[in-house]
Amino acid sequence: NIVRVGWSVVLSALALSVIYFLLPNWAIGRGVLTVHTLAVMLGLTVWRFIYSAVVVRSRVPRTAAVVGAGPGGLLLAETLAASENPELQVSVFIDLREELAGTRLAGLPVVRPEFEDLPGQFLRLGVGGVVIADREGWDEDLIRRILEARVNGLPVHEMVRLFKRITGRVPVACVDNAY
Length: 179
Fold this sequence. Notes:
Elements: H1 2-22, H2 30-56, E1 62-67, H3 71-82, E2 88-94, E3 104-105, E4 108-111, H4 118-125, E5 130-132, H5 140-151, E6 156-158, H6 159-167
Parallel strand pairs: 1-2, 1-5, 2-4, 5-6
Antiparallel strand pairs: 3-4
């Protein structure tokens, strides 16, 4: 963020000014301080743009499981699949409903959760994160186990917030009374 870079440069300029006046025997001119401050601000700004353009865009998206294969989960999977630079790539739906187990939705498999070894199931599925989507297809016990996996380091996202961060829009049809 350019504002944070600006603030850090201003604070460093103030620190250098204080040092300049605390040590009056140094032969550093005020012009050097000004040129140095401007050069640092320009350098940091250019570096951040280069870093954003090269490193951030070349990241490989993490694979994620979407918990709840309802309309919100489908919307998220389709949105991420159509995105040019997705931070997540949906690889599987996890849903409690037996009628969906073994089927495919939006080209992705739907599996039932293995309550006895949910972290192991995530590893076998190659999942690096979880998105909690619709209220359909999960219950409190499944969410509790997912949150236990979160405590152990598994990234867990909430569908509405993730969708808003990616698209800038709120999926109104998927928002429930929790908001």
